[in-house]
Specification:
The structure is a homotetramer. Chain A has seven helices and 18 strands. By secondary structure, chain A is of the alpha+beta class. Chain A has two domains: about 120 residues, Galactose-binding domain-like (Jelly Rolls, Sandwich), CATH 2.60.120; about 250 residues, SGNH hydrolase (Rossmann fold, 3-Layer(aba) Sandwich). In chain A, strands 2, 4, 6, 7, 9 and 11 form a six-stranded antiparallel β-sheet that branches. In chain A, strands 1, 3, 5, 8 and 10 form a five-stranded antiparallel β-sheet that branches. Chain A has a five-stranded parallel β-sheet with strand order 13-12-14-17-18, sandwiched between helices. The first copy, chain A, is globular and about 70 Å long. Chains in contact: A-B, A-D, B-C, C-D. The interface between A and D is large, with 41 and 41 residues.
Amino acid sequence: MDFYSINEIPVKVHGRTVEGACPLPLFWNHAGVEVNVAASELWIELSVDCGFHEPWIAVELNGALMSRQMLLPGEHSLCLFRSMTPDVVKNVKFYRELQAMSEDDRCHILVKGFKTDGKFFPVEDKKLKLEFIGDSITSGEGTYGATTDTDWLAMYMSSSRHYASIIEKSLDAEARIISQGGWGVFCGWDNDVRHNIPSVYEPVCGLATGEFNEKLGASKPYDFSSWVPDAIIVNLGTNDDSAFSQPPLEIPGMGTFKQRRNEDGSYNAEDIKKVEDAIVNFLKMLRKHNPTSHIVWVYGMLGYGLTLPITDAMNRYRNETGDTNTAFINLPNTIRETFGAHMHPGYAAHIEAAKVLGEYLAARFNIPVKEVLGNL
Amino acid sequence: MDFYSINEIPVKVHGRTVEGACPLPLFWNHAGVEVNVAASELWIELSVDCGFHEPWIAVELNGALMSRQMLLPGEHSLCLFRSMTPDVVKNVKFYRELQAMSEDDRCHILVKGFKTDGKFFPVEDKKLKLEFIGDSITSGEGTYGATTDTDWLAMYMSSSRHYASIIEKSLDAEARIISQGGWGVFCGWDNDVRHNIPSVYEPVCGLATGEFNEKLGASKPYDFSSWVPDAIIVNLGTNDDSAFSQPPLEIPGMGTFKQRRNEDGSYNAEDIKKVEDAIVNFLKMLRKHNPTSHIVWVYGMLGYGLTLPITDAMNRYRNETGDTNTAFINLPNTIRETFGAHMHPGYAAHIEAAKVLGEYLAARFNIPVKEVLGNL
Amino acid sequence: MDFYSINEIPVKVHGRTVEGACPLPLFWNHAGVEVNVAASELWIELSVDCGFHEPWIAVELNGALMSRQMLLPGEHSLCLFRSMTPDVVKNVKFYRELQAMSEDDRCHILVKGFKTDGKFFPVEDKKLKLEFIGDSITSGEGTYGATTDTDWLAMYMSSSRHYASIIEKSLDAEARIISQGGWGVFCGWDNDVRHNIPSVYEPVCGLATGEFNEKLGASKPYDFSSWVPDAIIVNLGTNDDSAFSQPPLEIPGMGTFKQRRNEDGSYNAEDIKKVEDAIVNFLKMLRKHNPTSHIVWVYGMLGYGLTLPITDAMNRYRNETGDTNTAFINLPNTIRETFGAHMHPGYAAHIEAAKVLGEYLAARFNIPVKEVLGNL
Amino acid sequence: MDFYSINEIPVKVHGRTVEGACPLPLFWNHAGVEVNVAASELWIELSVDCGFHEPWIAVELNGALMSRQMLLPGEHSLCLFRSMTPDVVKNVKFYRELQAMSEDDRCHILVKGFKTDGKFFPVEDKKLKLEFIGDSITSGEGTYGATTDTDWLAMYMSSSRHYASIIEKSLDAEARIISQGGWGVFCGWDNDVRHNIPSVYEPVCGLATGEFNEKLGASKPYDFSSWVPDAIIVNLGTNDDSAFSQPPLEIPGMGTFKQRRNEDGSYNAEDIKKVEDAIVNFLKMLRKHNPTSHIVWVYGMLGYGLTLPITDAMNRYRNETGDTNTAFINLPNTIRETFGAHMHPGYAAHIEAAKVLGEYLAARFNIPVKEVLGNL
């Protein structure tokens, strides 16, 4: 078998990263590498590190999920397949199952290259490109794990069977994911105003911090022209809603923050305005960088509380900008039967959500919907 | 068997009607009479008339749909059950499967009473009361009939297996329906500004016109305190959206009407404002008459076009009134596989919609959801 | 509108009956008449009688179930549709929802003809012909009615949404049904050895007795060459199994009968042999009259107790005759969630059964399976 | 962290193996070790080897599938979880996803022990014990992998989401699996008469051959009293059926073998008798070693061809032995929509099969059925 460096073979890169980097960092959830290879055997060469939160990865062969496993610090040589008919071209996709971990600067996966006894062929782009932006729901938290499990851990997160990946498969699309558990569009679940997705949207990976990620290029500006999504799906608001029910948070050097409720339990108007302003501004930011993309705000998988404020902001954005290439859709709320681990939407809830959103996108882009249960 | 006049037995009346009327008119879709009776045999005595649009009716026994049939002009004596164990109390519900027909003044069903060999017992009220307000979707158009059928006919409409009745059964609730096919909140599908539901909401049955209905009391003010819904579900907007794609309509003596689109296909701002104003005013009307009811606007079963204008109006209503006891939910769009007759949502689409809305109401009112397929 | 006698128009007759009879008796469950008619209005003219067990009927328009209702003694003129576009050809099927009632000699439906303002056209035969033979399951008992209902009544029986009709629709076939609740292949549920289906299989309708049915021709030999089924589905054994758990039955003039169990609860070998002999003989009878039909014995919707005896008899039949054009398939047992009225398989159980058997027949006859929920 | 040898901690062993062996060989599909441990971190220590067919394994945490991966030759230290709340007891199950590989003598997984910072607690036995005996279907072949994949490879086999494991989870049972792809009850798919499951049933693992497995104790007699199944499910016959359609096979030193068909395509009686004799003898063997177990023969997931011969043999067994503690059930045939990789039943087909068989076992043993999709 020969070793091929990641920059000397035709490889399709999934997820935002530094173009041409070698080794190639997989910053985001669902970030990965995809190859077409005629070989009997294929290995991937990785360099991995982490602190508390170890990265997990998944492997798909010809579009079907074959493997899901934990990676620990070290240099790894992972066999992706072996003993196969050499001449047949196989499609292999290796991707990260874990969100960018803002709380673990050491956590990273670097792809150095592949070993094989065969030959690589180019991977065609998919016709439909989808960018998903969200929180723990979009980080797939709870799609693996027992409903009784309540630790907050890397292993419960995924992108192999959550709504974005189900839609990706059923519409034959390619999906990128920008997400962080606990974060919102204005603030995090605990009133932490630093934890807003817009603040990390513009660099390559604004969530990957620390010296090592800095060197990798995570904080560099992202070239939005390099991958133009047909649709951007924003699934934010769940944590912004939660903040209204949490105690005040004191952030050293910044002050104390609290999204307030009125005495009758309704949202305080000033604080709702903060959320709405954040939405309007985020829509403007998204539009600035993605002038042609259809923007769909989806909401509801963990409660419908902010539906009206979100749509209020979307309407304000429309009125201010005249941009009508946006839409809002509720996704079905998670119910007792569809919860997964850590009180998050489980696999069944993601199937439901993927159905509604997938049908919307299929109709919008005139694409048939495939049944994909067997490949998840 | 003895005859019992409708006003001399304990009967539960479904749907708005004139209190104490004898015979009792069933004005609305799903309007009906429900009795508990220990008997071997039960007949209902009816007086029916119609022009083009004949009324259809359904019969439920102990909560299960047993019969659905057409009624034609004349005096009818309809057997609801026979040969049953006399001493056991049966619950029987007889109801109209057809919307109030604004285009057929003759169309009516009057319940004169029952014939039986047994004895009547009171019917308890359900704990949850739901009022559904809508257009053809809420008139159940397309829930019966082949997908190839395209005539506009009474027989394709129903309230025996559409989303409102599925929710009614699965939440053990009682539902009332105020609906008219082709109508909107501001105007009808064809730009007819007379065809707006708010204009007919306040009388007992503003849709039943003509001399005969007048005499029955259809145009009398409705006593909103007589039946207080826990939730009002408004499913309007689909025809308002349609109007933007239809040619101008000239209404003799009133002028020419047309909801306009801009050159780029987007909605004309002035005309959207008309829809939004109508929504705000309708919400105010609903709240005036139903001070305690939770108001849920649902939308999407035939396209998501007006989601943002509807929510914009809902937000304006919130800001103007401070009333936060409202919510907005998308219902899943109808897809190729779920269409029914006359290009309307079919039974499968209504099952999907009932799932999402039913779960929402179940969570809100803390009620378990029952499986009811076998009773539909 | 003009009246057309049943024997002067091109009508497709469903179910065994006396060829050319006018009026036309509908003896069996699912027996009916089907017409293609270009008209705005269509009425069917009926003559009906019954004692305890009133017949129910169903109406389908273009393949979709529109109406289900009770018929009572008398001459009836029933409107099947009205107000439709005159020139379009509609397909209308009117059929009996009730099994032949062996216990009610008066029970009958006679079709005299149709009234219409239009014109009739021939109805093409379906490519696939299926004969279903069975007991209460095949009489659709429990497919309508609440699970709490326990009376034994006509209204709980059907052929509009039980496994045979679901398969008929999903395979675009035509189905005939020979069934009687409580009967078996050897004896009835209560050890009544007179209640075996083979004894009534050979006449036109061996279950319709009494002077009136005699005159109609029910007891005449049936011409098996007049409608050759591609497959015969026998769903018997459930009542034969039940008999082993019931007390002895004394039949005046015939003796006392009891299918026995051994002390350990297993079936008595002599008595099982009676069932097996009956099966072998019935298979021979079926083959004699239907030399080319594929015979499938299905079993299990109310327990798997006799699976091995049934297959034992089927193997004996194979060995004795060399005829291998037979098969055996279990249908899924009814479970708590899928029961219907009167402790019988409900609609959901029939959907499950139709799936398994429908897929088998689809594979055997190379026919695609259509989704038909909306038309039931 | 401390290392604990497999024989010094309370570990529940799944699958037949040599009692007390250290390291512990995992011979069979689904063979594994299960522990309860209060710890923040747990590792398993393995010794693995293989030739062409590498073993795959799966890890479950608190009953939910977390990981599935390939293992390659070498000494492995695999992290099963980390960073968890130390004091909480976790249940962890590590098991083989690959059948015993009769064609790869080197293929093995040995469990040496665990490393942890915590403490082990005993694992309670489940109330229901199920033994599944079968071929490639029971080896889970095709439950992973794209439908277009046609290589015969270890990675397509599984026991993490096939019918046996779905039933195991939904009935809260423990399952053991004895299976080999391509084998039958009389002969293999290609007429190889050596490939019959009965010949390998009596030793610990009759399929694991070669010097190394010999030393491990695979060929030792199995102590059937050590784990008494409540039910034995035999899913054999599919390959025996296939042999009738394959060319003759010459086995050096043994002769040429061919299951014949008659000219009309039906099975040759002599050759069918060989299959039936094999079934009768296998039932006797099963009963000899498992005197109290309910034996259910299931069949049909890849065609119903041998239903009658199988039941014929089962009836002969009943008659010869008087043992009625057996049953036969068809499982639904795999259809176009439910196929998986390598032309085998896919995940969806296994869900269907698990439903029918699971309901049967649930009724038989009076156990509720749990919904488990989220844990697969």
